[in-house]
Amino acid sequence: MSKRKGLILAGGTGSRLYPITMGISKQLMPIYDKPMIYYPISVLMLTGIREIAIITTPQDAAQFQNLLGDGSQWGVSLTYLVQPQPEGLAQAYLVGEEFLDGHPSVMVLGDNIFFGHGLPELLASADMCGAGGTVFGYHVSDPERYGVVAMDATGQVTEIVEKPQNPPSRYAVTGLYFLDETAPDRARQITPSARGELEITTLLQSYLAEQKLNVQTMGRGFAWLDTGTHSSLLDASNFVRTLQSRQGMQTGCPEEIAFNKGWITGDRLAAEAAKYSKNDYGQYLEGLLTE
User: Which residue, 175, 13, 25, is CA-closest to 85?
Assistant: First the structure.
C-alpha cells in the first residue's frame, strides 16, 4: 500500500459545459456507464492509496457524499473538503493540508481519465520516488493549450511552462501529480497569477528550480482524456464504451480494483453487484466472483 494520500480536485463551475452542468457538478456527469469521478478514484486506488480527499464546491459536496458515501464499499476512506472559490489547481494543497498531515500525495484532476496497459506499473514507479515531484508527459498535437514540459536527451526536465505560444516540446503535463510532503508549504509561497490563480505550473517550477522534478512520459499505448468540453465528454464516453464492448472488461471500476487488491471480500463484492443487478455493470461484478 502506498504511503501517500490522495487528492481529487473536483471543484469549479464547469462553465464550459453549460447548460448541462448548471445543476450538477461536471465530475458527477456520466462517462458512458459510470460517473466521471469513478475514473480518478480508480487511478488513486491503482496506486495503492486508500485515504482520499475529494475537494469540491460548497453546493456540490452533498451530492458527492450521496453518491460515494465514506468509501468503505471499496475498502477506502473518503473525506470531503470544500474549495470556496476556484483559485487555481495549486490551491488544492492548501485546502487539503490538514488532511495530508505531512504525507506525500497524489493529486488527480476530477475530469481526467487515464487508460493504458502498464498503467499500474507506471503509477508504482512514480510512487517509489522519494523527495521531489513527478509529473506525466503526454504527446499532443496542440501543446499550446496545456502546461508543457521539456526534457533533455537524458530525460531530465529542463523547462515547464503554462500554455506557451512557442511550445518547447509536444509533451503536455497531464492532470496527475505525485508530490512530496513539501507541496502545501510551496503552494503557500506562490503569488497568484495575472488571472488571480495559484498556478500548478508555478508550484512545479519550484521543484524544478531545486532539480527535484521528474517526468514520466506516457507512450503510444496510453490514453489521456480531458473531459472539459461537450465534444471531449462524448469522445470519452465513446472511448470507454468501445473498449468495454470489445474487451468485455471494465475501465475505471473501483469494485474490481478493491477486490483484486484484497481490500474487500467476495461477500462485499456480491453485495455491490446486487445494487446493479439490472444492468451490465452489476453482471460484470458478479462475473468477477466466478473467475
Answer: 13
Phi, psi of 180 (to 5 degrees): -80, -175
CA–CA separation, 156 vs 59, rounded Å? 42
**H or E segment at 9?**
strand 5-9
Task: Give the three cell numbers for residue 276.
Answer: 446493479
- Residues 6 or more apart whose Cβ sits within 8 Å of residue 163: 144, 145, 146, 147, 148
pLDDT tens digit sequence for 35-62: 999 999 999 999 999 999 999 999 999 9
Give the Cα separation of 111 and 17 in Å (integer): 12
- Average pLDDT, integer, range 101-123: 96
C-alpha cell at 220: 503510444
What is the rounded CA–CA span in Å between residue 8 and residue 55?
Answer: 6
